[in-house]
Amino acid sequence: MCNCSNVDIGSYKNQLRLKLPNHMIVNKTNINSLYIGVDACLIDEIKYLWGLGIRTTGCCCGHNKVEGFIGVFFDDIMKMKELGYRVKFNECRSNDEDSFIPKSL
After folding, report:
1. pTM for this structure?
2. DSSP 16
3. Over 56-99, what HEC string results?
4. Mean per-residue pLDDT for 50-73?
């Protein structure tokens, strides 16, 4: 479980702003595209994955209300599986395996 207390789903209350690693920066001229919000309790895990070259697409700790996830680029799905991450299936996209259950929660 995460350390969230009274944080609603969809809220940015528990997020911290992180500078994206170079392998994830698309537009170096737009300062807003150099940063991303990450739930505080997932920061170490996200930084670890970035350090391995994995490109994340989004994440949420779940705020102790729902199961959290870490989304990745399709090209990084096998890397996540090799690291022992379990796929978090999404009933709206039942054939996609690009979301994973965080290990740190």
Report:
1. 0.92
2. E
3. EEEEECCCCCCCCEEEECHHHHHHHHHCCCCECCCHHHCCCCCE
4. 95
